[in-house]
Design brief:
single chain, about 240 residues, alpha/beta, Rossmann fold, 8 strands, disordered N terminus
């Protein structure tokens, strides 16, 4: 989570907490804010720690004036709905989450608790919001969706290593990534590069299988389409032999 995204996510969370606090009556004791965090796996721990640090810098102390309810699915998509339901039962004030599978689980579980996305490839294609400028409902956040840059990255790769003719592509077959893949295919045709798409369904075990497929394909290079899981597992992907 970059500084800009971290600060913006903090701002959205604090705004949601402020809106919740404003509904309380003056007769009620001061409420301790409760924030839910839902991730697919633990690969984003460093980003969560950055978020915690940002809260501390703003005077929020865990266990004193704020409680963080962190849940991760251990890389298993099928656990996300139960974890989302658990956070809703805890009556958290706002939920911070990343990744299409986690956001979808939350969307299907609650339409009232504010859901903050630190970054999402294409929230419209993912059907999380209808209008990115004025999102309706309870989901908001940032997007880094720029499919035209996907083809540009392939061009830069070809310029850097002109001998590249076979490129493996790790992707998760999401609606946003389908758009990016089309852009990549257009660029590949003009560069005379053969793409070797390898799909993964965002689970840790599935990523192992995908990386094994990459090794078997023996490409000249590997690119990944924008995805929170790939970002969280970037060290593992780079170090894979």
């Amino acid at each position: 989570m970059t500084g800009v995204r971290k600060n913006f996510a903090l701002l959205l969370v604090l705004m949601a907490l402020g809106a919740t606090a404003s509904t309380a009556t003056t007769a009620e004791p001061k409420k301790v804010a409760r924030v839910g965090l839902l991730w697919l796996d633990s690969g984003h721990r460093s980003r969560i720690e950055e978020f915690r640090k940002g809260l501390r810098d703003l005077g929020y102390v865990e266990g004193s004036n704020i409680i963080l309810e962190y849940r991760d699915a251990g890389g298993k998509n099928d656990r996300l709905p139960d974890l989302a339901a658990e956070l809703v039962r805890l009556k958290v004030d706002v939920i911070l989450s990343d990744g299409g599978a986690a956001i979808e689980a939350l969307k299907n579980t609650t339409s009232k608790i504010p859901i903050i996305m630190p970054v999402m490839s294409d929230p419209v294609a993912g059907r999380f919001v209808a209008n990115p400028v004025r999102p309706e409902g309870n989901i908001t956040g940032l997007t880094n969706f720029a499919p035209e840059l996907t083809g540009k990255r392939l061009e830069l790769l070809k310029e850097t290593v002109p001998t590249v003719t076979r490129v493996a592509v790790l992707w998760s077959s999401s609606p946003a990534q389908e758009t990016a893949m089309k852009e990549l295919e257009v660029s590949a045709r003009s560069l005379k590069v053969q793409l070797q798409p390898i799909s993964t369904q965002r689970g840790s075990k599935d990523l192992d299988t995908a990386l094994e497929a990459v090794a078997e394909a023996r490409p000249h290079a590997l690119v990944t389409l924008p995805d929170p899981m790939f970002l969280g597992q970037r060290t593992r992907i780079v170090e894979y032999n």
